Amino acid sequence: MSDRVKIFDTTLRDGEQSPGISLDVGEKLEIAEQLARLGVDIIEAGFPIASDGDFEAVEAIAKNVRGSTIAGLSRTGFQDVDRAWEAVRHAERPRLHVFIATSPIHMQKKLRMTPDQVKDEAVAGVGRAKSYVDDVEFSPEDGSRSDVDFMCEVLQLAVDAGANTLNIPDTVGYGVPEEFGKIIEYIREVVMGDYVISTHCHNDLGLAVANSLAGVKAGARQVECAINGLGERAGNAALEEIVMALRTRSDYFEYLETSVRTEELARTSRVVSRLTGYPVQYNKAVVGRNAFAHEAGIHQHGVLEDRETYEIIDAAMVGQEAAQIVLGKHSGRHAFADTLTKMGLHVQGEALNSAFRRFKELADRKVEITEADLEAIVAEELGTGVVHRFTIIDLELSGGTKRTPSARVVLADGEDGTVEAEANGNGMIDAAIAAISEATGVKGTVLDFKVSSVTEGGDALGDVVIQLECESHRASGRGVATDVAEAAARSYLNAVNKIVRLRERPEAPREQHVGP
Amino acid sequence: MSDRVKIFDTTLRDGEQSPGISLDVGEKLEIAEQLARLGVDIIEAGFPIASDGDFEAVEAIAKNVRGSTIAGLSRTGFQDVDRAWEAVRHAERPRLHVFIATSPIHMQKKLRMTPDQVKDEAVAGVGRAKSYVDDVEFSPEDGSRSDVDFMCEVLQLAVDAGANTLNIPDTVGYGVPEEFGKIIEYIREVVMGDYVISTHCHNDLGLAVANSLAGVKAGARQVECAINGLGERAGNAALEEIVMALRTRSDYFEYLETSVRTEELARTSRVVSRLTGYPVQYNKAVVGRNAFAHEAGIHQHGVLEDRETYEIIDAAMVGQEAAQIVLGKHSGRHAFADTLTKMGLHVQGEALNSAFRRFKELADRKVEITEADLEAIVAEELGTGVVHRFTIIDLELSGGTKRTPSARVVLADGEDGTVEAEANGNGMIDAAIAAISEATGVKGTVLDFKVSSVTEGGDALGDVVIQLECESHRASGRGVATDVAEAAARSYLNAVNKIVRLRERPEAPREQHVGP
Q: Helix, strand, or coil here: A103?
């Protein structure tokens, strides 16, 4: 058996299905590039049949991201498989991931199929995938609640039809480690052939990481997981925890290795958090800001004496050192571009100009611009990789305990025009949103609003992520500024610009049929 | 063996030691009351020797909170034990929790004691505790990295000296479930006497819940855990996950029961998050806002057909239904007071008047005031339970992309006086903070700044928590308003008021010596 565990990242598929996350192609590409830099073996880039947007994102990732296998998810129907292949076929190493549910409740209530029909579907779907590519993965959805012998029959058929990875999902997070490990062990005994066994565990009871690792202990050599533990409901096993548990307890895990460059974990976590708008809990293992005691200045006595008194992971190993101060208001365009390149952010042309302008604006108000600040600026300006229709020329805000909060906004509209509006609101952010809605004619509903500070201290950048819904379109926007109301206005306008683009290319809503 | 697992909550001790959390007596009391309402068996209220503030909080909880055992943590020295007893002795059911490290690294580097000295200390500390109270718990700190036979010797001595609970800490989160379960099993075989065995697991590798449950499977009948998984570094096992795993997989966990009223879990999580300023990850198991698929409107097909297709826990069972709309701008004082009482919030006298005034202000700007809004208002107004020196009379803010952000503030100072100031800043919040600093003469450093929205939608309340440091004093403040800059100003002023009080009663800084 291999002495390596493959890391299969599903941040862009299962993670992206979390409510309120709606990444566009540019954002998905940015995450995929960071995942490749992190060194994951397989990137599940999306579910191509789900929507045109999903298809385009998977295709773009397959065409542009090098170093990792790119997988596309698919149900067993030929239309699904064909579409998935169409999206991933440009990849350096494409994989098709075919699934069908095998638990009684899913077969009866969701699929409305008999067990025999499910077997036929599995064989047909895997066979179709195999006709396109050698690297085929098969998942029996809701595996942990399936009759284990029936599931093994289906798995055997899948292997015989050409699947070379068998992924066992604990779709509803029902498993406990001892039991889940035994299922993996049993499958390995019963299902004959040459295949890699994989785990896909959900965290509904807080056991996703433990279940995945029990799977590894029982012979699994691929783990499906997601950055920051994103995913449906309580999410998937957190990639960073899986990797660091294998490394930190390599004595227990038989010195199994992964290809992950752990020093990229913290940055990957930040990129995903910023682009999805999902905050990372302070006390999150490995990537939370409290994960390392010595940074917090507590446990001081023990830590000073010997770091290992209270810490089992070195902060530097996961890239969790404090962000270095890199630039200030006197830094020029060359230094700026150079720093972005060193950080692995590829920004060119008009996007670079626009990011540099924002950098100078911020540097005028803020003494030190850190790496984390730069990431945020680039995320705001370049998240979409396309030119925005509306940009802010001027924004004026006033409010207080006795004044009615009000906002006035002047926006550039395309190349030449300008639009402007004034409005009141419950607060200044509310007023700014109303004024922008008025000026742009896009009146959406704010589904979610999240503010965080990028760096610490009084002059921290405010980073606002807004989820906007307008006439069945949904978009998220991000804004960064030293003033939180300005950041909110920027983020709202950003979302409005996306809605404008979505309107121009109407798209069928994503199908609500999701995978393992 | 008992068919119940005792839930020992350490949110107020291990959780409160997280960086940036500094709860005052009133806030700790509020959390303790909610924990008692939740039905936990034991509340570890603090570490009385650590500081005068810790002592007072433990004492206040022991005197006021009924229904749960109240525990105080203590090292083995007589001064520690005596102080802990002094704090908890008023409780309905007091417990003393004595600990000393047994791992080679902790004994050598931190304690600088020989193994024999550690044994003597354990016996002496437990004996002293037993002289005060029958209910004595003993913990060998860093148990999972201790020589297991040496640890068992110490445990045997502790039992012989009168300990009736033996708690096995995985202090650095190094354990894996199989191994940790075997340690518990081994202790139960080797250590003779009548005692309850307990687990205390940290989450550095994401395995705290799994390790605790492996302990239960191996015979542990107490689990130490914390709401939202708070605690040093990556935190402790999350109470809500432990309780729901035991219940959801009762088939696997031999139908063991806990006394927790699960329908209070969501509210307890909210109260702790709001008072500590620690956000809960959206994808947090059980209490995260995504934990239930049907709320998010995804997995729709399957969920509509049958909830159990994708969900294993009922949202109502953990109190995760949407907050009900309870009050509007026409609601009177009686309805307001009545609603608070129904919510279990005990607010009276001047505090009630002040909360009602804030409620009316908010209701003027916001159509619907939900239960979550009310919790936030009460948290802002009553967090400290004492009268503030400074209160806002007027606040004016202005800013924008081309204006210099500025603020003007007029504050009432005590009964009669007023103070006022104007200032500019990097953003309006920064300007408001500068103006308040100027007016009050309290110039602190903002260590942490967190904004969240209490409810959803455009007219959501902004909830700001600020951590402030000023001349070695630290305080957190909370502010709620429809305008986020106003909320920030309120939260900063709240922290300033606390600093003013701390200055009046200077206190030695808390000792940096923490427990299991």
A: coil
What's the rounded Cα separation, in Å, for the pair B27 and B225? 19
CA distance A358 to A377: 7
Half-sphere exposure of residue B270: CA atoms within 13 angstroms, side-chain side? 25
What residues in A contact B293, CB-CB < 8 Å?
232-233
The predicted-structure confidence for A398-449, as pLDDT tens digits, reads as follows 998 888 899 999 999 987 899 999 999 888 988 999 999 999 999 888 877 7
As for the ipTM of the complex, it is 0.81
**Is B306 in contact with B333 (CB distance < 8 Å)?**
no
Beta carbons of B292 and B299 less than 8 angstroms apart:
no
Asked if the Cβ–Cβ distance from A233 to B462 is below 8 Å, we say no
Residues of B in contact with A199 (CB under 8 A): none
* 3-class SS of residue B322: coil
Q: For residue A292, how many other CB atoms are within 10 A of its CB?
A: 23
B469 conformational bin, left if phi > 0, alpha if psi -120 to 50, beta if neither: beta
Residue of A283, A430, A443, A459 to mutate, interface with B, max B Cβ within 10 Å: A283
Query: How many CA atoms lie less than 13 Å away from A211 in the CB half-sphere?
Result: 29
Q: Cα angle vertex A169, ends A216, A125, to 5°? A: 120
Say which amino acid occupies B89: R
Which of the four pLDDT bands, split at 50, 70 and 90, describes residue A318? confident
- Per-residue CA distances from B199 to A170, A203, B224, B261, B400 (Å): 26, 21, 6, 21, 54
Can you tell me the distance from the alpha carbon of A448 to that of A343, in angstroms, rounded to the nearest whole number?
A: 30
What is the spatial distance between Cα A85 and Cα A73, in angstroms, rounded to a whole number?
Answer: 9
Residue A281: list chain B partners with CB under 8 A.
Answer: 228-229, 278-281, 284
Burial of B417 (0-12, 13-18, 19+ CB in 10 A): exposed
Sole residue written with tokens 């004691």: B113
Q: Which residue of B lies nearest to A454 if distances are taken between CA atoms? A: B449
Residue in this structure with the two tokens 């940055």, named with its chain if needed: A267
Binding-face residues of A in 487-506 toward B, CB within 8 A: 488
What's the DSSP call for residue A364?
Answer: H
pLDDT number for residue A329: 72
3-state secondary structure of A406: strand
DSSP string covering A408-458: EEEEEETTTEEEEEEEE-SSHHHHHHHHHHHHH----EEEEEEEEESSSST
Radius of gyration of chain B (CA): 24
Integer Cα distance of B203 and B184 in angstroms = 18
Q: At what angle do helices A371-382 and A349-365 cross, to 10 degrees?
A: 130
In angstroms, rounded to a whole number, what is the distance separating the alpha carbons of residues B281 and B70?
29
Distance CA B319, CA B314 (A): 9
Tell me what pLDDT residue A139 has.
98
Radius of gyration of chain A (CA): 24
